[in-house]
Amino acid sequence: MSDDLVQCADHGAVRVLTLNRPQALNSFTRAMHEELLPALDAAAVDERVRCVVITGAGRAFSAGQDLNDAMSDVDVGDLVEQLYKPLALRIRSMPVPVLAAVNGVAAGAGANFALGCDIVIAARSASFIQAFAKIALVPDCGGTWLLPRLVGRANAMALAMTGDKLPAEQAQRIGLIWRVVDDAALMDEALALATRLAAMPTAALAATRRVIDDALALDYAAALSHEAAVQRTMGAAHDAKEGIAAFLAKRPPSFTDR
Prior knowledge:
Helices cover about 45% and strands about 15% of the residues. The protein has about 260 residues and is of the alpha/beta class. The strands form two sheets. It has a six-stranded mixed beta sheet with strand order 1-2-3-5-7-10, sandwiched between helices.
């Protein structure tokens, strides 16, 4: 295993980014941020990459912020503004789908980093913990925006205030994540889904993320108008023309837009 704090590996058109501080449950440090954001930026501009999978090395996805990493004299607000906000916004602006393959505990910012991805697949032994209240902080890395939208206010408040561990299967039941799989099958399942998405119209998938997120702040009529505007752009692009032509010709499509 390399010494990189974020390992990169390509599987065809899928890029896998692995958080690599297993001895510290892949908790975030400034040094890890300095590798993770550029790794996402690199995937965003690499035309060969059509889907990204993020996972963790060892027995955790990420335990969140490493409290030993210069936390005693740091302005936590600055930490969020300078490191976690750019990271969360980068995920939401990726031009390709982003999957989180949660292989163990995902706590604090580690949980919300995973939940900010487009699709979350978790190992059966994985768990999610909004650990912030236990150290007198509030959810960050997008947690205040994500949680009520994913599971409603009642569940969001209880998860955030109690900081209780939420097992993966319960997280799936309440709509926090999409799918739970057996531990040994996690990466095979994640790569299979990522490979499937990589063969789909990437630009349309990224646009789908955008219009769904945008609609959360719109009334119904405005959302319909926004759909029409984005659909106009998508309909004029190569992939839509190719998809329609392939459907009519009863042949597999070849999508290339990104």
